[in-house]
Amino acid sequence: MEKERSEKDLVIEKLVRQLLIEIGEDPDREGLKGTPHRISKMFKEIYRGYDQTKAPKITTFPNGTDGITYDNMVIDQGDFYSQCEHHMKDFFGKYWFAYIPAPEGRILGISKIGRVVDYCSAKLQVQERLSHDIVAMLKEALMKDGAPEPLGIALVMKGRHMCKESRGARKKGIMTTTVIEGAFRDDPIVREEFMHQVGNVTEV
Ligand SMILES: [Zn+2]
Asked: Does residue 110 surpass a pLDDT of 80?
């Protein structure tokens, strides 16, 4: 049995139905019958970033507890999917996140980085703010309970924007946003090592 639709679900379904009519569609034709309902369900998933109760619990560990104090670069790479706030069109691509834990600081559970990326992406965004949101959330977790700041933190995001590719300019291309702090900003060798990992990626 399907869960009962909330008041909000019904409002969204009604609005989508009206939207279909306004663009010239017949919302009662076979292929569109379930569309308002599917969209209201989909919105819960792709816009869950507005719901703070859905924020991921970010597990961190104190550095130096397993007989090793880690003070090198940790890099996580993955995909992201979001929607631009100007057109509600998809933008998506790849991210590279890196940090250098403070010797007396904390270490992130590696799977949590991707979850934070997903959560911050799950609302209307611009890539610049998305990058900042991700770094801010991960940094806050690393500095929980007064833990010292990581020695460096960096994020590169490369995204394709459908509002630029499938309409408007109709030009394929990649937008790169970067947040660089601490050693990644101040130490050219650290920066170089990270940028080498990112490489010259021109397709995402
Ligand atoms: Zn846009």
From this structure: yes
For the chain, the average pLDDT equals: 95
CA of 106 to the centre of ligand 1 (A): 37
Q: How confident is the model at residue 2 (pLDDT cuts 50, 70, 90)?
A: low
Q: What's the gap in Å between 163 CA and the centre of ligand 1?
A: 5
Q: For residue 164, how far is its CA from the centre of ligand 1 (angstroms)?
A: 7
Q: Identify the band that residue 105 occupies on the pLDDT scale cut at 50, 70 and 90.
A: very high
Q: At what angle do helices 7-22 and 35-46 cross, to 10 degrees?
A: 120
Distance of CA 160 to the CA centre of its chain: 14
Cα(152) to centroid(ligand 1), Å: 31
pLDDT in tens, 119-143: 999 999 999 999 999 999 999 999 9
**What is the spatial distance between Cα 11 and Cα 9, in angstroms, rounded to a whole number?**
5
Non-local (6+) Cβ contacts of 56 within 8 A are 112, 115, 116, 118, 119
Cα(91) to ligand 1 centroid in Å equals 8
What's the 159 CA to ligand 1 centre distance in angstroms?
12
Q: Which residues pair with 156 in a beta bridge?
A: 96, 178
Query: Which residues lie near ion ligand 1 (Cβ < 5 Å)?
Result: 84, 86-87, 163
